[in-house]
Write a structure and sequence with these properties.
It is a single chain. Helix content is 66%, strand content 2%. By secondary structure, the chain is an all-alpha fold. It has two domains: 14-93, no CATH class; 116-166, Arc Repressor Mutant, subunit A (Orthogonal Bundle), CATH 1.10.10. A two-stranded antiparallel ribbon has the order 1-2. Helix 2 crosses helix 3 (66-90) and helix 5 packs across helix 7.
């Protein structure tokens, strides 16, 4: 079928259901990406990239815990991005720069960047979304005890950082 010069596909029940599943998950995934991502990461881009990577392997309908799987994919993307930025930062000495240039952010959100993406993910899921440590651990790829310990250490670190910025 062709309409207005564009190819139209007949509706496919699986794709329609998959699109509906994603529409339901999107707000939760976007909030997760906004918290877990650094200031350089666009939450929409993270969700989109995670979805693309997952769909290259399998359908959303095949996943037993879609939200956890996609959250983990988002967290992995942030970790990969942090590594790439770290490699680039290590090579900055190769480029001559006159004077130091630092971005300053007018809020305490920059303090969150001091935490690892996994720690941000755990804190967000437990403290903001009210999820259990077992659920946060599943997304983070660790045990519930390790998630509880990471959250405790991350909170202490945040308190220390926030006191230093006062």
């Amino acid at each position: 079928m062709v309409a207005n010069g564009e190819q139209m596909c007949p509706s496919q029940p699986g794709r329609d259901l998959e699109a509906e599943v994603f529409r339901e998950l999107y707000p939760v995934l976007r909030r997760h990406a906004a918290v877990v991502g650094s200031i350089w990461d666009d939450p929409d881009d993270l969700v989109h990239e995670a979805l693309c990577r997952v769909l290259q392997r399998q359908s959303l309908l095949e996943l037993s815990n879609r939200a956890a799987y996609l959250r983990r994919a988002i967290t992995n993307l942030v970790i990969d991005g942090s590594r790439r930025r770290g490699v680039r930062a290590g090579k900055r000495h190769l480029v001559a720069v006159e004077g130091e240039v630092r971005d300053e952010y007018p809020s305490d959100l920059r303090v969150l960047d001091e935490l690892s993406p996994i720690d941000r993910s755990i804190l967000y899921m437990v403290d903001v979304e009210g999820r259990s440590f077992a659920e946060a651990a599943e997304v983070s790829g660790c045990s519930a005890g390790a998630a509880r310990l990471r959250a405790s250490r991350a909170r202490k670190h945040l308190r220390k950082l926030l006191k230093e910025t006062d």
